[in-house]
Amino acid sequence: MGNTITEKILAAHCGKKSVKAGEFIEPKVDIALGNDVTAPIAIKEFTKTGEKKVFDKNKVVLVMDHFTPNKDINSAEQVKFVREFAREQRIVNYFEGGNCGVEHALLPEQGIVVPGDLVIGADSHTCTYGAMGAFSTGVGSTDLAAAMITGKVWLKVPASIKFVYKGKLRKWVGGKDLILYTIGKIGVDGALYKAMEFTGPVIESLPMSDRFAMANMAIEAGGKNGIIAADRITLAYVENRAQRKFKFYASDPDAEYSDVIEIDCSKIAPQVAAPFLPSNAKPAAELCKIAIDQVVIGSCTNGRIEDLRIAAKILKGQRVNPNVRTLIIPATPKIYADALKEGLFEVFLKAGALISAPTCGPCLGGHMGILASGERCVATTNRNFVGRMGHPKSEVYLAGPAVAAASAIKGKITDPDQL
Amino acid sequence: MSEIILKGKAHKYGSNVNTDEIIPARYLNTSDSDELAGHCMEDIDEGFVKKVSPGDFIVAENNFGCGSSREHAPIAIKAAGLSGVIAKSYARIFFRNAINIGLPILESEEAVDKIRSGDVLEVNLARGEIKNVTRSEVYKAQAFPEFMQDIIRKGGLLEYIKSK
């Protein structure tokens, strides 16, 4: 019986010929990632054990993206604490300030994660890198501390669910809409402890930015990881940026899955996930009476140049509704620079939007766009739990960049086709 | 190993109690456990911290702890004085975080179905047994694999690693 791509990557990292679902293993990690919110605890735990050096200064990556540029004194102290550790340990990939972006956009862009990698990160959206054919999963700070010491992580091999996306994508429908639809179908624990393997003709022609958006939200269905086998599209993305050698894996034709779910994409309209669960997905058109106060276009889900281009296409020559604060957050310095060069900033500024430095900021209710009681935001982010972006009585509606931009113009939730 | 008995009242919640509810992100600019404790469950139950007595349990339906990987979530629960959590199922990152920091967690469909808020519970962790003193009922929780029990026994992941 064959193996899934997830099983193959896991087996390769613990020196075994093959592993099977349910087995406990202790594989080596290629990258161990932390940020300004999760690294402080990891460093404290690391230090408490008496360890003096991280297992490999090239493999521990620290990105100061959540509450930066430092949002208050406490946050500044947390960053300072991590910075000093990074200096002491001579961490090669420490990011802060002008070189810093949202971690799950930054690492693939900089070629720090490559296909075939096993990545753990103290951030739940670490599953994003599965879009490049890597095994990548979120863990807590203590797991990160343990990996910083041993270079390994204990894992239970997940069973895999195979999703097969067929049909023809409608206009304005992208990876974000596909994943919102999928989570809507299976629920926020529909893939609990499982690997979500995204396959099918639609996936095979999906651009990288849409693949990242899909894998990014595997955790919102409870998934251990999301994964798309690397192909020529992946190759075009990585060949000039990968910092290390990479390897392409693929599932065997006779690999075993706990479930196979076919999805007809021709039926999928631009989606919105309404409060208070990412699974509360419906066609944007069904929510078109809901007035909004803010739009956020950014985050590790949809803050890439392709997302900004879509937003700019819709906002070009338009003005956002005067009641809607429209925040554009390019996810990395490179995306920021490219957007500027391509003239996207001019479109955004003329439309009356604000442009922010790269940061996670409002996505998790940190800063750079917090909501008051009763306020509503359409966001290209990944979570809409109670209080996610501010006051417990505020609301977040998740969507892709096209719906977000269209909604900013109208002042209410809008399917771009109805503009 | 001596038999640890955890004793306290149950505080019952529904499904999908998520990490933003357990500890809102606006408090993540600190890792001080006493500070975090004061805001535990704030956005889902404002009076939670005031009504908890040391040793109490959170009892919840499915997918407890879904959302973020923030270890601040089980830390806040432990620091607020709770003995542990009893749920029908857990989100996977929360599950391993709880074990890694030594917060006892148990999985039992039957227990969650039968327990009401306010019931007094006695939990034998080694045997995975939950006694409902108020209703004179006993429920069995799902057993963890041996090495996970080892991590809990040693008091957390790093202690476990050190001991090997």
Quick synopsis:
Chain A is α/β, with parallel strands linked by helices and 419 residues long. Chain A contains 14 helices and 18 strands.
Would you mind describing this structure in some detail?
The complex is a heterodimer of chains A (419) and B (164). Chain A has 14 helices and 18 strands. With 419 residues, chain A is of the alpha/beta class. In chain A, α2 (39-48) packs across α5 and α6 (175-186) packs parallel to α8. Chain B has a seven-stranded mixed beta sheet. In chain B, α4 links the parallel β2 and β3 (84-87). The mean pLDDT of chain B is 92.
Strand order of the largest sheet of chain B: 4-3-2-1-5-6-7
Structural class of chain A: alpha/beta
Main sheet overview of chain B: 7 strands, mixed
Give the C-alpha Rg of chain A.
Answer: 20 Å
Distance between the termini of chain A: 51 Å
Quaternary state of this entry equals heterodimer
Helical percent range of chain A? 25-40%
Q: How many strand units of chain B?
A: 7
Low-confidence blocks of residues of chain B: none
Poorly predicted runs of 5 or more residues of chain A: none
Q: How does the major sheet of chain A shape up?
A: 7 strands, mixed
Q: Strand fraction band of chain A?
A: 15-25%
Structural class of the secondary elements of chain B? alpha/beta
Shape of chain B: globular
Mean pLDDT of chain B: 92
